[in-house]
Specification:
6 strands; 10 helices; alpha/beta; DNA polymerase, domain 1; Rossmann fold; single chain; six-stranded parallel beta sheet; 233 residues
């Protein structure tokens, strides 16, 4: 049976992208004439469109002001990022390169489950030479709500690779409770990684099937995904 592993990007595969942060500032100013940034909300685990919406509500705009310009904002955000990512200094999280290579060698299908727009997701990962590992995904450009992204990714996995979800062959990997919740709502297994803002205990409390400190121990990760050793909690 084929395994599919869907990875979050920010704070799971890579550290913070300053260019992404600046792209939001630029788009808020250009499209809505608002000087603000994503830090006015808790944005961790949310999709880019959701972040846009919640920030603007926080800044006092209403739905009638936001909705007509949301597509312009998304286009502006993406265009700024694509033009400027070459200047970004993105750090790959420890252990990530080795883990992805090992999973690829084991014939695990790798995908993305990220709130980033698809253009931004691949631009980030290509910038640090990780994009080639990922064959499909669910992205913030697919839906406002993260749980819908799992359904989108699973549909693509079925169409492109013939992967049929079973009780233990699909995994969502991420560093926030929202990553975990998206996987739970889709009925797939979840791996929390305490490499971001949330602790092991917080990820366990969110209902993750497995929780790791980081991605350094690829053997432990393979034990989970490939069932090379029974370690299900």
């Amino acid at each position: 049976m084929k395994q599919l592993v869907l990875f979050d990007i920010d704070k799971t595969l890579i550290d913070r992208s300053e260019c992404h942060h600046q792209a939001f500032i630029h788009a808020f100013r250009k499209i809505f004439n608002v000087n603000t940034c994503v830090d006015v909300i808790n944005y961790h685990g949310k999709t880019d469109p959701q972040i846009m919406h919640e920030v603007l509500l926080e800044e006092g705009l209403d739905e009638n002001e936001i909705c007509p310009l949301k597509n312009d904002f998304i286009d502006c955000l993406s265009q700024y990022f694509i033009a400027n990512v070459k200047f970004d200094k993105i750090k790959v999280m420890d252990g990530c390169q080795v883990l992805l290579k090992e999973l690829e060698n084991k014939k695990v299908v790798l995908g993305l489950l990220t709130g980033n727009l698809e253009t931004i997701a691949y631009a980030k990962l290509n910038h640090v030479n990780l994009g080639h590992y990922f064959k499909l995904g669910g992205f913030g450009s697919d839906s406002y709500y993260r749980p819908n992204l799992v359904k989108t990714a699973l549909k693509r996995a079925k169409n492109d690779f013939g992967i049929i979800p079973d009780k233990d062959n699909i995994f969502v990997v991420g560093d926030t409770p929202l990553d975990v919740a998206a996987g739970i709502m889709a009925g797939v297994l979840t791996i929390g990684v305490a490499s971001g803002e949330y602790s092991i205990n917080e990820l366990e409390d969110s209902g993750a099937d497995f929780v790791l400190d980081n991605l350094n121990d690829f053997k432990k990760f393979l034990e989970i995904v490939k069932k090379e050793k029974k370690i299900r909690k």
